[in-house]
């Protein structure tokens, strides 16, 4: 079967031919429909993130998949079920995190990530997965089911951020998303449509006219150009934010977030930058965290419950927003277009098979 | 009556004579027994923290008080009840934070703090307080009831830190306290006697022999000299900490805590440093927060529920520890000794009246 992979020593995807996988006990065989492309895929290609599977000369790409069960193989699924796979798998037998259904909390070395760390991804005509790592979604979500994995990342981060504010009565009204990439925009739409915020902001660094600014304003949020208003000026220029969601991977934002927060606010951190030394006014930031009861919460990956929540969230996002977010779905013969990274590309996917309604 | 106060323009306490307070409606009159001295009192004296009451030339010191109800004045108390007052008061009528019993979550400008910000403290022979800001404690806690306010600070910080880990199954085993001042030692004792940690550490910068190191080791904890093992080396030299409690006010510790944490760990920040610019590897710290699901939670002050919890905690701390912690209780004629700040002084209090059992 065809697969889209990166070979060792290369930094571009290649279409390769690999054997169709055979499901083991407790595993289902899934026919891949679409697989989304995101920044992590680009980091994997650049070689700055991830790891090839042991004894393999290539890594099949892709971790944002949606597919249709082809062979349930005795699992709880039926042929034709539309499913989304979670990303993490236990590396050497189960461990406590996987046993309790929280693979997202496993530390390094205690997980593989399909398409990223030590395990092949989903950019192939078929994949297999243990039934417990598949999430059934409504048939009508088949076309955009590849958005469920990125939304699940937001579900998990917000789950943890809200938990950090659960020891007191927290009535958040304002929220800012740092970053207007596809994850930032999906999160902003979630804030607008499924959260109680009265005022939302999205921080980017793009000139008008720009399709992401149109989406931001179409959602009723305020676009903030960080070249004019740096993140640590947000509270002075606009207002202190009850919640800041960092989706830029720009390390200074993690610390500027402390200034951007309103008293009793929380910053959810999502980015994964590399080493970078810079100066901060650590004394003032420390004091600000304490005197105003602020919190910073880092979050990575997500578990089955977050995928289920993400499917609900996807169902509540307006079609118009989703149409403008997904700028291209490309067949395997046109995969280059799905990996393009320019100002008109927001969210793309590679299509491996068309969905046929049952 | 006699009171211990700081006059405007001075940096040392003075014994002054002020009128005995008269309780208003809903207020009780309390005879002060003892008032603890801590680092905040020293900061108030130095002028780096706090604010004089409006139109006053002096501030009565002290926020860690225990007393006996002298005149209940129609409130729910009885004469002879042993009580501890909370610290924050609404500045101009009630506001939402006080209304819902969470004055500790009020931002700057929305509270006074008795003995610190804009309101007289408890270092006087009598004080009055609205009944709702008094917490009744067992009679036998009268001698050491001045420890309840500092313990309540820890109760609140841990309440918020644990909440931040409530979205997943968190089974903490290791905890480190940064700082071996009286708050650090009280917190360490709390960790040992009322928390599930299997291994505890306390970080200081003292040479042996030293009474605080004796207390740390007497509690069964490991003393770490930060001159040999900096906080960001804790996880390499000892182990990653599931919980770090920062009680040094040293701003670099707030950020080194991120390195000191185990995956999924939380740092509770308590210190209030001033501005201080320094360099950090912000990229690596940001990545570490995210990839290992870590959190930092700032916390200030506490509310009635935390004072009640603190009274329970005080009841479970061993007498031997408390005896070694409280190095001096001094009458008003010897107040200088209570404000001494040397290596043999750990926790002190000023006594305004002896407790007479009822």
From TrEMBL, chains A, B:
NADP(+) binds at residues 180-183, 205-206, 270-272, 299-301. Pfam families: ADH_N, Glu_dehyd_C. Its EC number is 1.1.1.47. It catalyses: D-glucose + NADP(+) = D-glucono-1,5-lactone + NADPH + H(+); D-glucose + NAD(+) = D-glucono-1,5-lactone + NADH + H(+). Substrate binds at residues 40, 113, 149, 301. Residues 24-139 form the Alcohol dehydrogenase-like N-terminal domain. GO terms for molecular function: D-glucose binding; glucose 1-dehydrogenase [NAD(P)+] activity; NAD+ binding; NADP+ binding; zinc ion binding. Keywords: Carbohydrate metabolism, Metal-binding, NAD, NADP, Nucleotide-binding, Oxidoreductase, Zinc. Transmembrane segments: none annotated. GO terms for biological process: non-phosphorylated glucose catabolic process. The keyword NAD applies. Its cofactor is Zn(2+). HAMAP family: Glucose_DH. Catalyzes the NAD(P)(+)-dependent oxidation of D-glucose to D-gluconate via gluconolactone. Can utilize both NAD(+) and NADP(+) as electron acceptor. Is involved in the degradation of glucose through a modified Entner-Doudoroff pathway. Belongs to the zinc-containing alcohol dehydrogenase family. Glucose 1-dehydrogenase subfamily. PANTHER family: GLUCOSE 1-DEHYDROGENASE, ZINC-TYPE ALCOHOL DEHYDROGENASE-LIKE PROTEIN C1198.01-RELATED. This is Glucose 1-dehydrogenase. It comes from Halalkalicoccus tibetensis. The lineage of its organism: Archaea, Methanobacteriati, Methanobacteriota, Stenosarchaea group, Halobacteria.
């Amino acid at each position: 079967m065809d697969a889209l992979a990166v070979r060792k020593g290369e930094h571009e995807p290649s279409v390769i031919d690999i054997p169709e996988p055979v499901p083991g006990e407790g595993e289902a065989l899934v026919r891949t429909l679409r697989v989304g492309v995101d920044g992590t895929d680009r980091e994997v290609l650049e070689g700055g993130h991830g790891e090839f599977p042991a004894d393999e000369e290539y890594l099949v790409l892709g971790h944002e998949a949606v597919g249709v069960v082809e062979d349930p193989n005795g699992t709880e699924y039926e042929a034709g079920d539309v499913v989304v796979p979670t990303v993490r798998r236990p590396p050497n037998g189960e461990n406590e995190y996987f046993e309790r259904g929280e693979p997202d909390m496993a530390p390094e070395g205690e997980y593989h990530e399909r398409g990223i760390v030590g395990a092949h991804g989903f950019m192939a005509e078929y994949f297999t997965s243990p039934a417990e790592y598949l999430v059934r979604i409504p048939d009508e979500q088949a076309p955009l089911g590849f958005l469920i994995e990125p939304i699940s990342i937001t579900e998990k981060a917000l789950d943890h951020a809200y938990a950090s504010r659960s020891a007191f009565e927290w009535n958040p009204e304002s929220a800012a998303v740092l970053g207007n990439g596809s994850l930032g925009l999906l999160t902003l739409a979630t804030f607008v449509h499924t959260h109680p915020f009265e005022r939302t902001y999205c921080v980017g660094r793009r000139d008008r006219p720009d399709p992401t600014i149109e989406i931001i304003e179409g959602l009723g949020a305020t676009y903030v150009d960080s070249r004019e208003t740096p993140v640590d000026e947000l509270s002075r220029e606009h207002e202190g934010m009850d919640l800041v969601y960092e989706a830029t991977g720009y390390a200074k934002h993690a610390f500027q977030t402390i200034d951007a927060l309103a008293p009793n606010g929380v910053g959810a951190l999502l980015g994964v930058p590399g080493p970078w030394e810079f100066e901060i006014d650590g004394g003032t930031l420390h004091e600000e965290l304490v005197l105003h009861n602020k919190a910073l919460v880092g979050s990575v990956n997500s578990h089955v419950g977050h995928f289920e929540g993400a499917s609900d969230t996807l169902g509540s996002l307006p079609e118009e927003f989703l149409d403008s977010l997904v700028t291209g779905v490309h067949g395997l013969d046109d995969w280059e277009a799905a990996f393009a990274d320019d100002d008109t590309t927001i969210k793309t996917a590679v299509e491996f098979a068309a969905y046929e309604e049952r």
